[in-house]
Amino acid sequence: MQISATNDEQTVISTFEMTPGTCTDVLEALQDAYDKVIRHQPGFRGAAIHVNDAQTRISTYSRWRDRADFQAMLRTPEMRERNRAIAAQCARFEPVMYEVAATYMAE
């Protein structure tokens, strides 16, 4: 996945906070959502899921053609149901939209 500040794509970084006991369940729910629903939506470009060492936070990074495509995916009945189930397992769930301001690569 090439990250560039020169394109018009929408970046969404979502954070999920949970207990270590529910981390695996949330991770599996997210993987299932990306595999079966999200990656098939119009405008989806790519994503990654990250889990911290303590298994108390999961972050997802996804790229979309534009903001409207991401918002349309969230409004589908299946994703509304999935997001409610995921949020019920989390102390906090926050998706935030970003634009790439700068990128850096190793020399």
TrEMBL record:
This is Antibiotic biosynthesis monooxygenase. Residues 10-105 form the ABM domain. PROSITE patterns: ABM (PS51725). Keywords: Monooxygenase, Oxidoreductase. GO terms for molecular function: monooxygenase activity. Pfam families: ABM. The keyword Oxidoreductase applies. Gene3D superfamilies: 3.30.70.100. InterPro entries: ABM_dom, Dimeric_a/b-barrel.
